[in-house]
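Reposting from the mailing list since nobody answered there.

I have sequence plus structure tokens for a pair of proteins and want to know whether others read the tokens the same way I do. The first protein:
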Amino acid sequence: MASPNEPANEGPTEGAGRLPWLRTSSDVSWRLLVVFGALLAAGVVLARLQLVVVPIFIALLITTALAPPARWLERRRVPTALATALIFLGSFLVVGLVVAAIVPPVIDEFSNLGPTLRQAGNDIEDWLVEGPLGLDRRDVTDYRDGIGDRIADLAGESSGGVVAGARTALEILAGLVLSIVLAFFFVKDARTFQRWGLSHLPVDRREFVGTAAAKAWHTLGNYLTGAATIGLVEAVVIGLAVGIAGGSLVVPVMVLTFAAAFFPIVGAIVAGAVAVMVTFVSGGFGPALAVLVVVILVQQFDTDFLAPLIYGRAVRLHPVVVLVVLTAGGVLAGIVGAFVAVPTAAVVSAVGSEIWQRRTADDPRFSADIAIPAPGEDSSR
């Protein structure tokens, strides 16, 4: 018999019951490891199939833009195949006219980029010597020449650069052709694909899958339309600001600003910095400061007013989420990964929101609002 001062022996059930958090943590941990492993495997497979996955994604983007006018023609009793062909031919015509109007000025202005950059280097060198830093011109010149020699060495070391560039160009061309062909069939046979997919699902799941797919499609279309609209507004306003301030390379700045809209936050920062630097080289500090103010105001206007108005409730991603997925996509797959990361995250968020709403609609535990105290407020009240 144990003495009164000795602790009683704990049975296995009693001892395990004192550490419920350990069991819960272990269960959550292995589930997270399984999910992470599945995501990693999916990422590796998608990276291996990049030449197929990226054209499919681009084809979906093209389809979201061309499907509505094709359906409009169908409602006017135009056959589906003919409506699709007319929309694609009209799109090719519009794109060709835009390219013919933009490319020659861009090439002409880019031919002046070398002298502009050399002049920028001279201006920076003069500022380092004659400005508040008061550096020795010989040291600055030696450092500048060293950078030029290093760039030349790197260019000489990349002996396979021409071959790699040609291969990349062929891959881009093949991917573009594949995207156009896929987009044509997506627009033409979208309902056939939809019926085929739903027919292979249980009857009680078809309504949910159809609703989730429609929400994902609506989100993708809203993202594409919104990014293009915001890019067009920023390109016009910032291009006009650079031109009025006396900056050169206005057309390349506008093209870069439009393309940067498809890389949220990061693209806007890069395009704005380029616009300011171009103006600084051509017009000096005062005009560059004016363009910087315009860039900040335009991007703030887009973030606070234009983006919520265009995207609506279909694309709701916090800036933190945008930065994380944009960075992750860039790290995993370069510029292509950064391009597809945000719309993919928006679609996943929309489908996940639909699933969550259905799971919690009739659950009283999720119906109450959460009161979150403000910073510095006593949460015990």
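The second protein, same order (residues first, tokens after):
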Amino acid sequence: MPNQPTPVEILQSLVRNASLSGQEGGAADAAENAMREAGFDRVWRDAAGNLVGELHGSQPGGKLVFDAHMDVVPAVDAEKWTHDPFSGEFQDGRVWGRGATDNKGSLAAMIVGLSALPRTEFKGVIYVVGSVGEETFEGIGLQQVVDALRPDLVVIGEPTHCNLGFGQRGRARVTFRVPGRAAHSSSDDQSGNAVYAMAKLADKLSIHVFPTNPVLGTGSHAPIELISSPYPSLSTVPAECRLTLDRRLMPGETAESILADYRATVTGIPGASVEMDRVTYTSYTGEKFTREDFHPAWDSGKDTALVQNCLAALHSADITSELFPVPYCTNASYSAGVLGIPAVVFGPGDIVQAHSINEFLEVSQLELAIRGYKALAERLAQ
């Protein structure tokens, strides 16, 4: 195919489409064009806007999904960027711009690497998915695809610096509410001040004990938002104080167990309550999803045949990949964490670049990932 774009050109076309969560249509168009030019057997989109490309092996076999999300976070402080965040500029061996590393480099490498795989070299069907909504709610887009396809294995593209992730901590967002008694702030009686009550709860949360996993480490939480009501206040003692935590999870923890854990913590704080936050994501297609902001941990097992086979495949492609537990949350929270479909995580770039000013992807990493995805498919789709 003499007119087929290069990997860098595909990545540039993806970066130039500022695909914030819920606005992924332009990136989906660019990825669809690249898939068609690369000779995918079928390219389609579902109602949620996920893009799916199919590659059919020469013999019957299983279903293997390679997923990379198309949405990006906003390019804050654009005036501080040395390259326009949506230029996709190629300079100094790097493609610059929001999403170059997180996560359009993975998608570009999948399109190029997997389309280059001879049909005689694999069995069954390989699906390349450009999923929506990951930055808003990990797994909400991919859920629609895996529920429809029920694949045997999922390879998640995320920036791992071409190392192999075999599991990850989960994530949940919970909010505590403490009631108070509204009064004028000049009052000598501050016993009904909700902020003081919340301070007592915050002290208890600061010494919270978390479960530990021998592979994924220890759970944690971080206060990420604290606000009183009314806000802004005009000399009024707050009638409520609200604290939101980002909780990192270990395998086996559920939404119910997290809430039960925290309900025990709020004991002794009069009127205090805790609930799991709910998130609403609306795709560029108009499809709307509202779910609890809970994403379970998962572990495919670093010593399992699957993970060791994946590692051997990468080494056979001259990629010095190492195994590691992924510290951040991915779309596999649904496919692996909820459904139990085996998963690994592999992709180009450094997670340090994700969400950062002056995000870029080294082209050398892009080239490694192309080889890596091809090697994984050759080994797994048999």
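Reply #1 (J.P.):
I read it the same way you do. The chain has a mean pLDDT of 95.
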